[in-house]
Design goal:
single chain, 509 residues, alpha+beta, OB fold (Dihydrolipoamide Acetyltransferase, E2P), 9-stranded mixed β-sheet, 15 helices, 19 strands, 39% helix, 26% strand, globular, binds 4-amino-1,4-dioxobutan-2-aminium adenosine-5'-monophosphate, binds magnesium ion
Amino acid sequence: MTKLIEPNGYYYMVYINEISKYAGEAATLKGWVYNIRTSKKLIFIIVRDGTGLCQSIVAQDDVPEPVWETALSLQQESAIEITGIVQADERSLGGHELHVSGLKVVSQAEEYPITPKEHGIEFLMEHRHLWLRSRKQWAAMRVRNTIIYAIHRFFQEKSFIQMDAPIFTGNAAEGTTNLFETDYFDRKAYLTQSGQLYGEAMAMAHGRIYTFGPTFRAEKSKTRRHLTEFWMIEPEMAYYDLNMNMDLAEELVEFLVQEVVKLNREELEILERDVAKLEQVKAPFPRISYTDAVARLNSPAMQDRLDGMERERKAEAESLRKELASLDAEFGQAKKGRKFQIDRRRGDINARLDQVEEDLRNIPVWKKSALEKKWGEDFGGSDETLLTMDDPTPVMVYGYPAEVKAFYMKRDSENDKVALGVDMIAPEGYGEIIGGGQREDNLEILLERIREHNLPQEQFRWYLDLRRYGSVPHSGFGLGLERTVAWLCGLKHVRETIPFPRMMGRLYP
Ligand code: 4AD
Ligand code: MG
């Protein structure tokens, strides 16, 4: 709290998220005009200051003429300092409003490109630097912040040491095809895909560590789950086997979800996230072997389940279309207030219809892909959706075919074709949020894997040393921050989960 000295006395500079403490007192908000509405003798300014929104009311009869004139001149996003008496009002945004006595323009904004009308996604992406100020984007970034802080708390309270892996690397961790190459003083260097290999070295020094940093993938995938630059959290633990690894992943994810549910009520509401779904995310999460997962996909029960889903969606689409037709018929004669209601409802129905129609297009594809899935193939997005559709929690799939996994994965001692890897798949179609597993700790076997994968042995000399000097069983995993944010916020596309997304075809702003 800062006391501001004004010519006519003391005012508190107040942040909107703390405004309730100042009910009945004079306060100054410093922020921007989020929205402005003028009636005959009143001007309603919704002010945003980064912490929240507050309605401010300028009454022509109560303020000196220049204040009224200044208020009339304001543009959306003009920067202002606004002073008045804080008044509790349940009907108002955030439960309080400001009855204005003074107003200062810090800088008048030009005509703002983002208006309350709908904009296309390309336009919004081009204006990402401004779009960040919009409500849903604001809410998503706050959820992201909660998750970041909660991740640090989770690990720090368990005495994990946070350590950073390098970003320039000389070798690939996850396979060589999707690296960004840079010129490093006439040598080749790559932007890291994963801090894991370095994490393993750090775990041998500190026992349990986690990295938290940007990672880069040059995959040419234009999906709603892929960024070229994303943030990954990679714990690595000495003396952990696959089961301990899964226990930790499950505990972490449960904690993150419940922290967001507890701390971000308002944000989740702005995002129109179904909080009941998140509340159900409690350990234990189902664990299913890859082999059983394939069998489940292939099963007649899966086909029946999808047929049932198709029937449900068809019936829903029909009833939504009927409702839409009857609203359309009513609209012409409806009164103004009712027209507004109809419009809102039509918007909701159309959004749901889009989703239902997408499902109806997808279901035949899913059915075919599930039926034809063979042991040895990796899972795609649709397989992941099907494997999680009956659970409110994520599902952990473990024991993948070694062929589809990285060179460092330890194999199952009972079946050499199986790698001790685990993926955690989020529910509601959000896909893989965690990949990890137990690492190969035997020098000879690791050497063989490096040869099999045609990797440059010289580059891995240091990594192999870890197996020479006190090698122990160890495990770890990588949590994708943006995919986690997308899931918890209910955002379909990861581009809205990071301040400035980097994707194929997007480097601006
Ligand atoms: O499954 P991945 O590739 O695993 C690793 O990199 C391991 N070295 C991690 C480890 O064991 N320490 O990536 C881990 C997670 C994925 O589950 C996903 O959430 C996220 O990182 N991820 C991406 N997120 C956004 N865009 C991309 N292109 C991503 N690729 C992976
Ligand atoms: Mg993976």
